[in-house]
């Protein structure tokens, strides 16, 4: 249920994020970065809008670590600034969308604890842009166990992970079931918060439902690549989508081949765009390609509805994409990967 009255300052926010979008890095910038060392990349992004974070953090960090902290801190600040500038129901929709970072941060903590990472290693991958504040995230980091971290998260967000998922983790030390419930929890929370019937709210609701559809398609493709099907695949279905219901999902997941799975998805409006991804060779490239599809879908909706929350969402997706690309290039260069291999990971 949205808590702010009034429709929101759509025209102002649309113009603001459009201005921010124009300052994002372009393809030629990434091509330049591919020719640089890590210190040169750090200098380059400092001149491209990350200088304050790079300077503020340089006292405590250096190298790749500095770049990672600075890019995430910059993104967090940008997102919080957008949230603070919005008002009315627009502010509530932006806040609902940004809760994704609460759930992503929880996954970072759970994975870190499962793999025995240090607090500092986990902290560098946190994005403080959701409803959880820095103190809340520090409590998650400091939790002595995964179960206690989940209990802290529940007290802040209401998300409850089933006893079955926790038992499965205790048995095999694999987080799959817990992470699946966390992902479903995010989408349920967002859809539950979008209760209005006005045009702007309906646009946001339908967009999020399409995002769920795409996430379910991505899951089907991943499972096909890993030769997983049947009841095990059915457990990963996220309810609440726009076109892809549980029956179609189950039929696609049970199909013997990737081609047969896509034949079950022909009723989807973006079937042709998705079918083009059926030959993607690896899961990592699949995830990157699906992110591009989600972005293109958001851009199309933003063009149709410029006075809605979607232009704001488009900017936030593009900003996140920029940060991922900067990190990918820097890590590739630092690891000694050749330029073509790094560029293939960017999916520009």
Class of secondary structure makeup: mainly alpha
What is the CATH topology of the domain at 99-182? V-type ATP synthase subunit C fold
**Total count of helical runs of at least 4 residues:** 19
Instruction: Show unreliable segments.
Output: none
Q: β content, as a range?
A: under 5%
Shape: globular
How much helix, percentage-wise, in residues? Answer: over 70%
Q: Compute the gyration radius: what is it?
A: 20 Å
Number of DSSP-assigned strands: 0
Please give the CATH class of the domain at 99-182: Mainly Alpha
Order of helices and strands: HHHHHHHHHHHHHHHHHHH
Q: What does this molecule look like?
A:
The protein has 348 residues and is mainly alpha-helical. The chain has a domain at 99-182: V-type ATP synthase subunit C fold, CATH 1.20.1690. Helices cover 72% and strands 0% of the residues. The chain has 19 helices and no strands. The protein has helices spanning 10-22, 27-33, 38-57, 63-85, 88-98, 100-115, 119-123, 134-142, 146-157, 163-172, 176-193, 199-225, 230-234, 246-254, 258-263, 271-275, 283-304, 310-335, 339-346. The radius of gyration is 20 Å and the shape is globular. 36% of the residues are buried.
